[in-house]
Amino acid sequence: MKKTATLMILILILIIVSCATTQHVDYIIEDAAWSAVDALEKNPGKTLAVYYFTSSDENDAELSKYISQGLTTQIANTIAEEELDIKIISRQMLDQIMAEQSFQLSDLVDETTQTEVGKILGADLIMAGQLSWIDDETCHLNAQIIEIETGVVLGGFLYDFWTDL
Question: Is residue 4 part of a domain?
């Protein structure tokens, strides 16, 4: 009886731990916004542009769009809540400029292009990153906040999540 109870407790702990480490994408966006603001609050007066999240899987375009739009909104809300002197540029403005500049998909991955887009937007900082699939259900997000002029990484975050998008 003791062995069975111990085994059941261990199984329950494993289930809880696995649920805690891999969250749904909606939950990580809010948490990631706070992580981003932690790095941003040391840079008052700056303007941040949230860039596309690249992936080797061409089917991730919708997921990248969803995450970058969600992060833009959540970071803006967090900046307002904390009353920080930081501006954030919307994804729609980025899309308009990219359409005008006729950037190709292959250019989006290039670091030089990312900083050029940031300069065109008038941004001091850019959030960029990568999506990579760990398995069929779990995606890994690696995002960095980069100072455009120097290329210095000021902060960032890593998350593993699942999505039903």
Answer: no
